Every structure is written in structure tokens, then in C-alpha cells.
């Protein structure tokens, strides 16, 4: 080895076009078109006060917004449902997070894994199932209630509180993840210090623990509330039949009725988006502020409280939540799907497999299923490549304005997918290449609305990667592309695979954007399920929903078993 | 090796690095000759790591120039900034940056493969590099299954596997435990000498810097405090910062007495005590601060003969530190700290004589 021989591989002047530069320019261009172009059209429609069918608009004004107070019932409904749902979701999230992180509840590890499941069950599935359980006339629970001598209905899931209940059940899992993260990131020595000064367990909890977790819980509250404001599927399934509208379902109603009232829908969408944007901005401010002692990046093993025999009661509380949000809905759908007419009491004569047979035979369902799976795979694959590059640029490049890039990419999170799709509908209608109503517009829509999901997942992994792993490759003389291939991608593999799965699952089950953007030749599955709910039998719908869940489950299982070996390295 | 040879391998001139409004490095310049080990020494946040990263090409300076082997790598005025991968350097990172998804062999082979090596020559060179750090038997091991010390060795092998004129060391020993660190210090120095490679070394550890370097650049708050050989830096600190940072030191201030011409100076402290010292050709003003190393001060029960600087003192405190004892005495209206080898010979309240040779009373600048 001759370490003394200088070996500079061809040092020339600065290269103008590099692979890195080209990739970055492309990512920025795509990002701008995907995110900003529809937002522009959404705003244009909201301020359009010219003739109904003339585009581009001939006059702009605030008239559409001035008309909003007429729909104050909708606004009130939205706030009421969102508030009730937020309170319930936080109670679910806080209680389960406290139990699982701070007490010696049995099987805490398994329960913690299971707590993510409600999020995957989705509010739509939950709404369908809870509608079967709690509709005032036909709901199983009410049938049982009357059978055992009750009168009227015990519960009404189509009431505002019923809708909020269903939304809260599934958002509770999100609240759990956020709050338990806050609780586990707290240095236990802060509490121990209080105890050493002579404060008792409850005094410590009130004066130290609660104030320290309060900001994190507040952050979770704001985040959950913003999500509730933009939530769509539960209110659509449970509210619309009785003409109970929240803002998202009202927008959908205005767009899909004849004649459509698009400017009004746009104004509603923009208002909702403005409110959500402020909330999420607040959330970011709270979470970003590093002054909290609780957010220290270090993982602590929090102090576990010995609650004695009460631990079995707390275990029951967690199990009850999982039963209400996962087990009961799935079993209900299963029970309904094998009956000719869904009733609470099983009868042999009522048993049938026709619903599944019919669901699998329907041509519309078959194409919708194929489209959904295909879209899911393409979206996930392209999305991972795109958000991977984007996350890398935001986290690791020295690009000026990369903070702005992050803001643009996270933008779709502040816009309900339905509202975003509305902007897209408008935007891609006038796009010179005719893609509106096709498979491709759905692909673009999915790629856009799931940007934040992919970005967050991959950014999280990149942030944990030691910067010098890449720098070392650089000093060793490897180009950007070479390092990407030999260092970055192999190291990011677990994160990239996780992002692929998340985007795939989210795409296959997407409703808000698909319901507005799918054309007659580009049907996808979830809107088809909703359509079936409104226009054919609930038993058939239950079968369809179960088939969708099963297919996703199979793909997940296949994917994980195929990639398990690939995603692991080291001994 | 005290003087850099005629053609420097690393030349840094007037380097400044800014992060937004914060200036991390301001007007830094130094040279390292062929085969020399130059150390950037300073407390955390002094700009030493930023300076090294700028040499590596991982940080873009806002002003100044960097030349390696006479080739301009960075020049703010000429708009030249050669990317790190084309500077032909190698580097050992503080976190080792061992790629966990590769074997030890693949880690070490990386730079060689980038340079198009393959087959038998690649294998031979990798094994040669692993031999240097006594890690040959680990070649097939997964990198994530190594201990800290082993990772350190692999990082070292990786840095010297391919030919490069300069190796950069970014606090390479800071994550090792004290005993291993002392061993690696000697091994690293030996390796660098054997390879004859120029090394730029960053550390905040004084002993490490003194033990390993041909030349030390002491930095604080983004600028250079002193540039010299280890002995020079230790014996003749230029500023109060260096005196304090490079080993413990007592600072004594007073007025310079007239007539103490030449290099010898005499200072009268506020309490009236006279102290003889040396100026080392540094500008002498009306007021002066001298640095007195704690180990250069001597304490004895009887008045030592033949000393100019000798004073009767009373012991205030004495602390046993193991290899050393530390004694605090009252002197000229202040307290001086003395460190001597062995057990404590004095108890608080004891009377003793304090002395120090004038050449160890060094005038500080500024």
C-alpha cells in the first residue's frame, strides 16, 4: 500500500449538472405541480363569482364566503361532532396510554401492539359495523334491547353523538400513539426527585407528571381535533341518510347534487382548510418547542406503578377498547354478511354465502378491486421513491429553502382529502392532457394526498441515521448515486418498506379523494363499498368490506414474509 | 519534525465558516507538511471540527482557501469548491461511521471499489489494511457485531486502505474508555509514522494532542489562539486561554518594573511581591500577566539556595490526587496552586518556601 501517493480522481472545475441536482430539480417540480396546482384551482373556485359555467372565472369576490352563514347548522354540527369525538378519543387515548406505559398491567407488550389495530380497521368499516349494531330500528343492539323488554331504541348511532362515538373509537388509537410517546419520553428521575423531597405518589402525579405531559397532550388534542374536523366517512355513512350534514359531507353533497354548487363547496372547503391549517400550525409549534423537559430524544424506561389487583381491571379496560373498536365491528360484519337479512338472532334458514358469491361475481367489484390493488402498488412504489428523495433533500441536503419544501409536502395533511380532490377535479379538468376521470388522475391524487404519510415515515428513519455514514462514503470518493445505492438505500430499507406498506394500505382504502375523482372506467373499491351501502343491501356491503379487509391482510402478510429477510441486517 | 517542510500538504488560509448569522470559524490559517501530524485542539464549540469538515469538503466555508498538495480545493474568491468525493482524502469519524449493513471486509474495501479495484488486488489490499490494525480475523464478521474498540480499528483500516495523501481524524478516540484510549493513542501515532501520511487530527483532549502531534493549533471561539509544537504550547503559552486550557496554570498580573530590559522582565503584583519572568520576545507593556504552571512551582520546607523567585508562604489547603498532590498557598494577595508528585508533604497552616525558575514565568499576550 502506498499511502503517500496522492490520488485525486480527476479534479476539474465545478460540474454544472449532477445526478443529485437533476433529481432534486425533478422532485421540486413534481411537488409544485402536484400540491400547488390543485390548491390554486381550489382557491380560484372559491373566489369565483362569475357565471356558473364559465372558466376561467370572469369575476372574483367574497360572495361565496358571504353565503356560508346560511349553513351555520352544518358548521355547528361539525364543531359539535368534532368536539365530542375529540374528547372521547382523548379519553380513550389517555387512559390506555397511561395504563400501558405507567402501570404494571399484564400483557402490556401485546396490548401495545394491538393498540395500532383500530387505526387499520378505519372509521368506514367501523361506521358500517356500528350502523348494523346501533341503527335505531334495525340495529342488533336495539333488537336485543326490545327483545328483552326495552322500548324504542337503546342507542342511536345515527345521532351526532353516535357519529362522534364511531369517529372517536378509531382516532383513539392515534391519540394513544401520540400520548404514550409523550409519557415514555419523560425522564423518570424527574418524578423520583419529587418523591425524594417527600412528595407522595399523588402529589407527584399532580405537580410533576401532569404539568410535564400537559403540552404533549395539548398537542395531541389539537391534532385530533383538526383530523375530526376533516373526517368524512363516518358522517357520510351514518349522517346522510337522516340528512345530518357536517362540513365534509355537505361539500360532497354540493358537488354531487344536480346542479352542483361548486363555488359554494369550494368556499366551504377553503374555510375548513384554513381552520385546519391554523390548528396544525399550532400543533407543530407546540411539538417543535424544545423547552419541554419531556421531549429529550432519549428513550427512558418510565417508572411503572404497582397497582395490585387493579391491574386486571385496567387490563379489562384496554381489552374493552379493543373489543369495541376491532373485534365487535369485524364480528358484526361477518355475522351480517352470512345472513339473507341481517338480524340479531341467528337462524339456520337465514344463513347464506350468497353475499360473498355475489360480491365476488359482480363485474364492477372485480374491476374496482383490480384497480384498487394496482393503484395501491403503483402509488406505494412511486410514492416511496418520491418521498424518499424528498425526505433526503429535506433532512440532509444543504438546499436553500428545503424548509419550504417540507411545508409544501406536508400541506396535504392540512387539507381534507375530499377538499383536496375537489381542487384536483377542477385543476385536471382543464389540464391539456385529458387525464380527468381516468386511472391516472387517481394515481396523481393518491401520490399527493399520501405525501405527508410517506414523508413522515421515511424522515423518521433518516433522522435516526448517523450523518457520517454517508459522509464517510463521500470522503472515500463515492459519488451521490453510488452512495445512494451502496449506503443510503440499504440502510433505509426497513423505513422504505414500512412506508410502502403504509401508503399501499392507505391507497387501497382511500375514500375522500376517490369518491370525487373516479370515473365510470376507473372505479375503485372503497367508494364502490359506500355506493353499495346506499343503493343495495347492507349484507352485501358487509361482505364487500370484509373481502377488502381480507385482501389487504393477505397482501400485508405476503409482503412482510417476502421482505422480512431483506429488511434485516446485522447479527 | 518541528518545522514544516518546504512544500506543505495542507494549506488553509484565512478560512471563515458561517452558519446563518453565527460565525463558527473566523480567519483561520495553518499549514501541515508532508508526514506531519497536525492537531486542532480546543474546547467543544471552538470551531475545530468545522475547520476539519471544511478541509474534508463536508462543510462549505464562506471565505478563505484550502489547498491540498498544491491543488486548490476551495477558494471563495475564485468560486472553487471541489466536492468531498473528489478531494482524494480519507477520514476517521468520531462515531466511526461503520456501515452496519456490510461486513468488515466490505467496509474496508469500499474506497478501493470506488476506485475500481477488484479481484485479488482488492483482497490483498483490504487484508493488508486489516493487518495494520490487527483485525484480519474479523474480515468476514458483520460490522454491526463489533465492539467499540473493534469498530474503531475497522474505521482506521478503512481510512488507510486506499492511497490518500491526508487522513483526517475527527476525535477518533473520544468514544473509547480511558484505558483503550491510551493504548490506541500510541498505536495510532505509530501507524501514522509508518505510513508517512499527513494527518489532520481534531481533539479536545490535551494529553492526546500533546502525545500525538508534531504541531498543535489551539483554537477558541472560532479563531486560532496559538500554533506551535507540543513543547512550545505547553511551556510557552501565548494567551491566558492557552495557559489555562493546555494544562492547569496560575495567572499572575502586575506592573512591569522599568529597566528589566532584554527578555527578562520583573513584575510587581498589586500586593507588592516581585516576580521574575521571561518575555520570549513578546511585546512588553506597562501591565503584564504571567503564566505559572502548577507543576513548575516548587514547595520546600527550607529556603532553597540560588533561586531569584523565592517566597515564604503559608499552606492553606492540601489535596491528595493519587499520582499528584495539590497544594494551595497564599501568595501576594492571591492563592496559587502547586502540583507535586507523590503524597502530601504539607498540612494546612504549615509554613514553607515557594520557588519557581524565571523561565517558567511566561509573559502572556493580550
What do you see in this structure?
- The complex is a heterodimer of chains A (571) and B (366).
- Chain A has 25 helices and no strands.
- Chain A has 571 residues and is mainly alpha-helical.
- Chain A folds into two domains: 251 residues, MetI-like fold; 288 residues, MetI-like fold.
- In chain A, α16 crosses α20.
- The N terminus of chain A is likely disordered.
- With 366 residues, chain B is α+β, with helices and mostly antiparallel strands.
- In chain B, the strands form four sheets. A six-stranded mixed beta sheet of chain B has the order 7-8-9-3-10-11, with helices on both faces.
- The chains are: A mainly alpha (571), B alpha+beta (366).
- Chains A and B meet through α21 and α22 of A and β6, α2, α3 and α4 of B.
Could you write a compact summary of the structure shown?
The complex is a heterodimer of chains A (571) and B (366). Chain A has 571 residues and is mostly helical.
Amino acid at each position: 500500500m502506498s499511502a503517500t501517493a496522492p490520488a485525486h480522481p480527476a479534479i476539474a472545475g465545478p460540474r454544472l449538472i449532477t445526478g443529485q441536482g437533476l433529481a432534486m430539480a425533478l422532485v421540486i417540480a413534481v411537488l409544485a405541480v402536484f400540491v400547488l396546482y390543485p390548491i390554486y384551482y381550489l382557491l380560484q373556485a372559491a373566489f369565483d363569482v362569475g357565471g356558473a359555467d364559465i372558466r376561467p372565472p370572469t369575476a372574483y369576490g367574497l360572495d361565496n364566503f358571504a353565503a356560508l352563514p346560511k349553513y351555520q347548522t352544518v358548521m355547528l354540527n361539525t364543531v359539535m361532532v368534532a368536539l365530542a369525538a375529540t374528547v372521547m378519543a382523548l379519553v380513550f387515548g389517555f387512559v390506555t396510554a397511561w395504563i400501558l406505559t405507567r402501570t404494571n398491567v399484564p400483557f402490556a407488550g401485546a396490548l401495545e401492539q394491538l393498540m395500532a389495530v383500530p387505526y387499520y380497521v378505519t372509521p368506514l368499516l367501523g361506521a358500517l359495523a356500528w350502523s348494523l349494531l346501533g341503527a335505531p330500528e334495525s340495529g342488533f343492539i336495539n333488537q336485543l334491547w326490545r327483545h328483552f323488554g326495552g322500548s324504542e331504541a337503546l342507542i342511536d348511532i345515527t345521532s351526532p353523538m353516535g357519529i362522534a362515538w364511531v369517529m372517536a373509537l378509531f382516532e383513539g388509537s392515534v391519540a394513544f400513539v401520540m400520548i404514550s410517546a409523550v409519557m415514555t419520553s419523560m425522564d423518570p428521575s424527574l418524578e423520583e426527585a419529587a418523591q425524594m423531597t417527600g412528595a407522595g405518589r399523588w402529589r407527584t402525579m399532580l405537580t410533576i407528571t401532569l404539568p410535564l405531559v400537559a403540552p404533549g397532550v395539548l398537542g395531541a388534542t389539537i391534532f385530533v381535533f383538526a383530523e375530526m374536523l376533516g373526517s368524512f366517512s363516518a358522517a357520510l355513512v351514518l349522517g346522510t341518510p337522516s340528512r345530518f350534514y357536517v362540513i365534509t359531507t355537505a361539500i360532497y353533497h354540493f358537488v354531487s347534487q344536480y346542479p352542483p354548487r361548486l363555488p359554494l363547496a369550494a368556499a366551504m372547503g377553503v374555510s375548513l382548510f384554513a381552520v385546519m391549517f391554523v390548528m396544525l400550525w399550532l400543533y407543530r409549534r407546540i411539538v417543535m418547542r424544545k423547552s419541554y423537559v419531556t421531549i429529550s430524544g432519549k428513550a427512558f424506561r418510565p417508572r411503572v406503578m404497582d397497582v395490585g389487583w387493579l391491574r386486571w381491571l385496567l387490563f379489562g379496560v384496554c381489552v374493552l377498547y379493543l373489543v369495541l373498536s376491532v373485534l365487535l365491528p369485524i364480528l358484526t360484519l361477518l355475522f351480517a354478511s352470512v345472513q339473507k337479512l341481517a338480524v340479531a338472532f341467528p337462524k339456520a334458514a337465514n344463513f347464506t354465502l350468497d353475499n360473498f358469491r355475489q360480491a365476488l361475481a359482480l363485474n364492477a367489484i372485480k374491476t374496482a378491486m383490480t384497480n384498487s390493488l394496482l393503484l395501491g402498488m403503483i402509488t406505494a412504489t412511486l410514492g416511496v421513491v418520491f418521498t424518499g428523495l424528498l425526505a433526503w433533500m429535506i433532512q440532509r441536503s444543504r438546499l436553500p429553502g428545503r424548509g419550504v419544501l417540507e411545508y409544501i409536502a406536508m400541506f396535504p395533511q392540512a387539507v381534507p382529502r375530499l377538499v383536496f380532490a375537489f381542487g384536483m377535479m377542477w385543476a385536471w379538468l382543464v389540464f391539456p392532457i385529458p387525464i380527468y376521470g381516468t386511472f391516472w388522475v387517481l394515481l396523481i391524487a393518491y401520490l399527493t394526498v399520501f405525501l405527508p404519510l410517506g414523508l413522515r415515515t421515511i424522515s423518521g428513519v433518516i433522522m435516526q441515521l448517523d450523518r457520517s455514514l454517508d459522509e464517510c462514503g463521500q470522503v472515500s470518493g463515492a459519488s451521490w448515486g453510488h452512495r445512494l445505492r451502496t449506503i443510503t438505500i440499504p440502510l433505509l430499507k426497513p423505513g422504505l418498506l414500512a412506508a410502502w406498506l403504509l401508503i399501499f394500505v392507505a391507497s387501497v382504502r382511500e375514500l375522500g379523494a376517490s369518491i370525487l375523482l373516479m370515473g365510470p372506467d376507473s372505479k375503485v373499491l372503497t367508494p364502490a363499498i359506500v355506493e353499495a351501502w346506499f343503493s343495495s343491501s347492507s349484507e352485501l356491503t358487509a361482505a364487500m368490506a370484509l373481502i377488502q379487509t381480507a385482501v389487504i391482510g393477505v397482501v400485508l402478510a405476503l409482503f412482510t414474509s417476502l421482505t422480512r429477510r431483506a429488511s434485516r441486517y446485522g447479527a | 519534525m518541528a518545522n514544516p517542510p518546504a512544500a506543505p500538504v495542507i494549506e488553509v488560509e484565512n478560512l471563515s465558516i458561517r452558519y446563518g448569522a453565527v460565525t463558527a470559524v473566523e480567519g483561520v490559517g495553518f499549514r501541515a507538511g508532508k508526514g506531519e501530524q497536525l492537531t486542532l485542539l480546543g474546547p467543544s464549540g471552538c470551531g475545530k471540527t468545522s475547520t476539519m469538515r471544511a478541509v474534508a469538503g463536508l462543510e462549505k466555508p464562506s471565505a478563505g482557501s484550502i489547498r491540498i498538495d498544491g491543488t486548490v480545493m476551495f477558494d471563495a474568491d475564485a468560486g472553487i469548491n471541489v466536492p468531498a468525493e473528489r478531494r482524494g482524502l480519507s477520514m476517521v469519524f468520531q462515531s466511526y461511521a461503520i456501515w452496519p449493513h456490510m461486513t468488515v471486509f466490505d467496509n474496508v474495501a469500499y474506497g478501493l471499489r470506488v476506485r475500481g479495484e477488484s479481484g485479488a488486488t482488492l483482497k490483498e489490499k483490504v487484508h493488508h489494511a486489516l493487518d495494520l490494525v490487527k483485525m484480519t480475523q474479523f474480515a468476514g464478521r458483520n460490522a454491526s457485531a463489533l465492539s467499540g474498540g473493534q469498530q474503531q480499528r475497522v474505521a482506521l483500516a478503512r481510512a488507510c486502505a486506499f492511497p490518500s495523501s491526508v487522513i483526517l481524524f475527527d476525535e477518533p478516540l473520544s468514544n473509547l474508555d480511558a484505558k483503550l484510549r491510551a493504548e490506541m493513542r500510541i498505536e495510532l501515532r505509530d501507524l501514522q509514522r509508518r505510513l508517512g501520511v499527513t494527518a489532520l487530527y481534531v481533539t479536545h483532549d490535551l494529553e492526546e494532542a500533546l502525545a500525538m502531534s508534531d504541531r498543535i493549533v489551539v483554537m477558541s471561539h472560532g479563531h486560532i489562539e496559538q500554533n506551535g509544537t507540543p513543547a512550545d504550547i505547553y511551556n510557552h503559552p501565548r494567551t491566558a486561554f492557552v495557559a489555562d486550557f493546555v494544562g492547569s496554570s496560575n495567572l499572575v498580573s502586575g506592573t512591569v518594573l522599568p529597566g528589566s530590559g532584554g527578555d527578562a522582565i520583573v513584575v510587581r503584583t498589586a500586593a507588592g511581591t516581585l516576580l521574575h519572568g521571561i518575555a520570549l520576545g513578546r511585546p512588553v507593556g506597562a501591565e503584564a500577566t504571567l503564566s505559572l504552571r502548577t507543576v513548575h512551582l516548587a514547595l520546600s520546607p527550607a529556603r532553597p539556595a540560588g533561586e531569584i523567585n523565592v517566597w515564604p508562604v503559608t499552606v492553606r489547603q492540601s489535596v491528595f490526587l493519587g499520582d499528584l498532590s495539590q497544594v494551595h498557598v497564599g501568595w501576594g494577595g492571591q492563592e496559587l496552586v502547586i502540583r507535586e508528585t507523590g503524597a502530601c508533604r504539607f498540612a494546612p497552616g504549615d509554613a514553607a518556601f515557594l520557588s519557581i525558575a524565571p523561565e517558567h514565568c511566561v509573559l502572556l499576550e493580550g
